[in-house]
């Protein structure tokens, strides 16, 4: 395999890992605070639709992003209301969020755009453009020279290839996602908020008797989760692709959950896990029909591979993953 | 006259139809240790939870140092200088000692300065009060005694002048409890006011200056500790005369019922917990096994009760019993006429969410009396439960109540009724009165002695030396999987047993 091919796969790994990473960190905040959230998928989907719809209607991707975050926050608020204030079952609430998002997005999309549950394709200011680093090869060089990017890329040295493909040329949300990893680590382990957040997921009674509001902390965590899911959804519809289509999250919220367990609720490990799952998706995209000496592996097998491997990794390689001790348990004061 | 550190006036609190506190008034002088004693469910913990802002009183007022104070939440309690050490510690298990101490009392948004300051102040507190802890150890790496010290330090770090301890010795060994009381006396010397909640008379007599007695939500008396005695306090607690000593005639042991030879037990982690012990229990005697928890007593009981496998020989009435595989499970043991009151009644003795009558069936659910063809005969089972509830004075006398809705003492009565009423040849009893109130202790002890007097063999395991002394006809001490020696209760004392429990061999002791 050519080196350039490897770099291109890694490049697409980063693009595909971004929504996983954002959703995974979203889940990390929520679950570290003791609120299990299987509604990551639904929040992403809702945000994907509203960000694409608002971007299509206003022509501004930034307004789209805000709308996406707002819609995801609304669902997060719903989950918070059900599982924190009303002490309901967090799994059921999460499932409800997923169903609500799956149904509502298509319904509203059909009502607004009459395109069979999609939004119109986004272009220009309606999409997040790729940030191009200085000296990196990109579409501008291609325009200037009149030759395709791939040709220019092939002529340059390896370092320049890595710089141009892997570091440069992503949407700003990709950088946001990867910056969120050290920030999350710092918040969790170096700040008062992080200490309290981790404590409330382990033993809310300890936080309560220390005179800190359990409810307040948990709502804060759920809100952060909503914002990050919102960014993840907006990235899907306005950066990775150009518009919303039905069920476009395609289980990414659940893969993010799997990555979260694989990472045992730690931010740096979460990045590693999401990159791994991103790589699987990138490989599946790149190699569609593989011909192994007469036996053709059909495209469906490759498409299913990331999901199959998710199951295999979770079942076989995680080892003992101990979730935050108070996870999933509504907090009720007792002596 | 000095202003009381705490004054509660007319506090009342109801949970639904249950009135936990009825018009309670109490005044605690500063710089004293004030005991509050009462049976489980008397309302002691509720009262203190109100003082710590965990619950809101329906009526009444709180005065701290003479000032009327509203305590709507724990934050307000901490601000008023009140610290509380709960019965179940409120610590984050995978945090370090230091992190637990600063939690909720941090200085600013960043952790590092708070931790540094806490580390410094902790050192000062440690020296001042001789409360030694390792600030960098995680909570799940330290023992319960040290965890409790962390809780006390947490309160002191928040500048508590009034310290409430709720049943602080429930989880401690006798030596750890003594150490705790030394710390409390030290705190009193430094001018702190301490409220000690307990249901153990011994602790009240040893540690407190003043004692208030609660019964069924009411404060029945407040007396100077020096002017009272355990019998009087017990009577005030229970509302009737209580026999603190077990009344029993000397045993007349018959033939050996249980013979244990070279029994060895290895736990799940591959550690040998019982290291080749020999023991005989004869008909009509109670053999008590004393020892600090974790020296193999639990495993011994579990093997005999069919809860885990072992090697060696055990014989019941001369017949060898299998120690592993077929015929060695709990069901088989019960068929072999061995009844078992397990140490942890909430996990091993009962299913907490099931009705009392369902719990009465466990272990005996294949009894033909409870069956009708392939179905359970629930009506027969319920009728049987009614009889047992009446005979063992289980309160409330309602077989439809879930096990968790009974008090600790009444839960234990259900387990004891189930096991004793089967008329076993051998009764295994583990910690029969852990978390059980005085009235029920007296009742359960009487039942055990009555079974002995019918000529049954009884093997008792307890970490309460007092209980070992009052029930046993013969005492064996276990240490590190070995039996260190056997003694007759009237020929030994707590000191000698204490040495054996610490592993000092029989001859040296």
Structure description:
The complex is a heterodimer of chains A (335) and B (509). Chain A has 335 residues and is mainly alpha-helical. Chain A has one domain (3-132, 169-316): ABC transporter involved in vitamin B12 uptake, BtuC. Chain A has 14 helices and 4 strands. The longest helix of chain A is centred in the first third of the chain and has 30 residues, at 3-32. Chain A is globular, with a radius of gyration of 21 Å. Chain B has 509 residues and is an alpha/beta fold. In chain B, the strands form 5 sheets. A 6-stranded mixed beta sheet of chain B has the order 6-7-8-3-9-10, with helices on both faces. In chain B, helix 14 runs parallel beside helix 15. At the A-B interface, helix 9 and helix 10 of A face helix 1, helix 2, helix 3 and helix 4 of B. Chain B: InterPro entries: AAA+_ATPase (IPR003593), ABC_carbohydrate_import_ATPase (IPR050107), ABC_transporter-like_ATP-bd (IPR003439), ABC_transporter-like_CS (IPR017871), P-loop_NTPase (IPR027417).
**Low-confidence parts of chain A:** none
Topology order of chain A in helix (H) and strand (E) letters: HHHHEHHHEHHHHHHEEH
Shape of chain A: globular
Please tell me the total number of domains of chain A. Answer: 1
CATH architecture of chain A: Orthogonal Bundle
CATH topology of the largest domain in chain B: Rossmann fold
Biggest pleated-sheet summary of chain B = 6 strands, mixed
Largest sheet of chain A: 2 strands, antiparallel
The CATH architecture assignment of the largest domain in chain B turns out to be: 3-Layer(aba) Sandwich
Query: In the CATH scheme, what's the topology name of chain A?
Result: ABC transporter involved in vitamin B12 uptake, BtuC
Low-confidence stretches of chain B: none
Radius of gyration of chain A over all CA atoms, rounded: 21 Å
């Amino acid at each position: 395999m050519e080196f350039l091919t490897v770099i291109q796969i890694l490049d697409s790994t980063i693009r595909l890992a971004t929504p996983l990473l954002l959703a995974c960190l979203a889940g990390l905040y929520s679950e570290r605070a003791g609120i299990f959230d299987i509604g990551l998928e639904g929040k992403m989907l809702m945000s994907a639709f509203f960000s694409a719809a608002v971007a299509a209607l206003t022509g501004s991707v930034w307004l789209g992003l805000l709308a996406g975050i707002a819609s995801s926050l609304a669902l997060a608020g719903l989950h918070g209301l059900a599982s924190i204030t009303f002490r309901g079952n967090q799994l059921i609430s999460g499932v409800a969020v997923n169903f609500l998002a799956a149904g509502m997005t298509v319904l509203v999309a059909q009502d607004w755009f009459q395109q069979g549950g999609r939004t119109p394709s986004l272009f220009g200011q309606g999409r997040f453009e790729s940030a191009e680093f200085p000296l990196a090869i990109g579409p501008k060089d291609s325009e200037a020279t009149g030759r395709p990017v791939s040709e220019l890329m092939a002529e340059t040295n390896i370092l320049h290839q890595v710089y141009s493909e892997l570091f440069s040329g992503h949407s700003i949300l990709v950088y946001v996602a990867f910056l969120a990893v050290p920030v999350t680590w710092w918040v969790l382990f170096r700040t008062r908020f992080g200490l309290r957040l981790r404590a409330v997921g382990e033993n809310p009674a300890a936080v309560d008797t220390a005179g800190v509001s359990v409810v307040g902390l948990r709502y804060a965590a759920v809100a952060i989760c909503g914002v990050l899911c919102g960014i993840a959804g907006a990235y899907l519809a306005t950066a990775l692709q150009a518009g919303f289509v039905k069920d476009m999250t395609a289980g990414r919220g659940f893969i993010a959950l799997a990555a979260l367990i694989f990472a045992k609720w730690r931010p740096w490990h979460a990045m590693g896990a999401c990159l791994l799952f991103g790589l699987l998706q990138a490989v599946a995209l790149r190699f569609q029909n593989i011909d192994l000496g007469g036996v053709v592996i059909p495209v469906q097998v490759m498409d299913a591979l990331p999901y199959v491997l998710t199951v295999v990794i979770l079942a076989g390689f995680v080892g003992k993953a101990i979730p935050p001790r108070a996870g999933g348990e509504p907090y009720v004061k007792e002596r | 006259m000095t202003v009381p550190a705490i004054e509660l006036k007319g506090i009342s609190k109801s949970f639904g139809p249950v009135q936990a506190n009825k018009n309670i008034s109490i005044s605690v002088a500063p710089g004293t240790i004030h005991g509050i004693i009462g049976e489980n469910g008397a309302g002691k913990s509720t009262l203190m939870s109100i003082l710590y802002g965990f619950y809101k009183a329906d009526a009444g007022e709180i005065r701290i140092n003479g000032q009327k104070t509203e305590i709507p939440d724990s934050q307000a309690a901490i601000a008023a200088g009140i610290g509380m050490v709960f019965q179940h510690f409120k610590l984050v298990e995978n945090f370090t000692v230091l992190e637990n101490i600063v939690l909720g009392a941090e200085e600013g948004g960043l952790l590092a300065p708070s931790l540094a300051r806490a580390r410094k102040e902790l050192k000062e507190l440690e020296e001042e009060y001789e409360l030694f802890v390792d600030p960098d150890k995680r909570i799940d790496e330290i023992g319960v005694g040290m965890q409790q010290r962390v809780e006390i330090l947490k309160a002191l770090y928040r500048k508590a002048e009034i310290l409430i301890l709720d049943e602080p010795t429930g989880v401690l060994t006798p030596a750890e409890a003594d150490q705790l009381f030394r710390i409390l006396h030290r705190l009193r010397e430094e001018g702190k006011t301490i409220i000690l909640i307990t249901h153990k008379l011994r602790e009240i007599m040893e540690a407190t200056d003043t004692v208030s007695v609660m019964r069924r939500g009411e404060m029945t008396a407040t007396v100077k500790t020096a002017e009272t005695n355990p019998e009087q306090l017990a009577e005030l607690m229970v509302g009737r005369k209580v026999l603190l000593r077990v009344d029993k005639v000397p045993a007349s042991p018959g033939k050996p019922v249980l013979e244990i030879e070279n029994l060895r037990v290895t736990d799940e982690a591959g550690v040998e917990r019982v290291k080749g012990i020999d023991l005989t229990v004869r008909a009509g005697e109670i053999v008590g096994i004393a020892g600090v928890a974790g020296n193999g007593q639990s495993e011994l009981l579990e093997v005999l009760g069919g809860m885990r496998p072992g090697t060696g020989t055990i014989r019941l009435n001369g017949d060898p019993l299998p120690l592993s595989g077929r015929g060695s499970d709990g069901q088989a043991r019960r068929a072999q006429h061995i009844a078992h009151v397990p140490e942890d009644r909430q996990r091993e003795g009962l299913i907490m969410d099931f009705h009392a009558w369902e719990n009465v069936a466990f272990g005996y659910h294949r009894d033909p009396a409870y069956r009708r063809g392939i179905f359970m005969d629930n009506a027969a089972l319920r009728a049987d439960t009614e009889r047992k509830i009446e005979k063992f004075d289980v309160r409330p006398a309602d077989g439809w109540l879930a096990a968790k809705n009974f008090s600790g003492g009444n839960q234990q009565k259900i387990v004891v009724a189930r096991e004793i009423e089967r008329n076993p040849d051998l009764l295994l009893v583990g910690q029969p009165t852990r978390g059980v109130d005085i009235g029920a202790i007296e009742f359960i002890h009487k039942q055990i002695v009555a079974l002995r007097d019918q000529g049954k063999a009884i093997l008792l395991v307890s970490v309460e030396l007092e209980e070992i002394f009052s029930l046993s006809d013969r005492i064996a001490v276990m240490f590190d999987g070995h039996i260190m020696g056997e003694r007759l209760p009237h020929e030994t004392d707590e000191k000698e047993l204490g040495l054996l429990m610490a592993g000092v061999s029989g001859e040296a002791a």
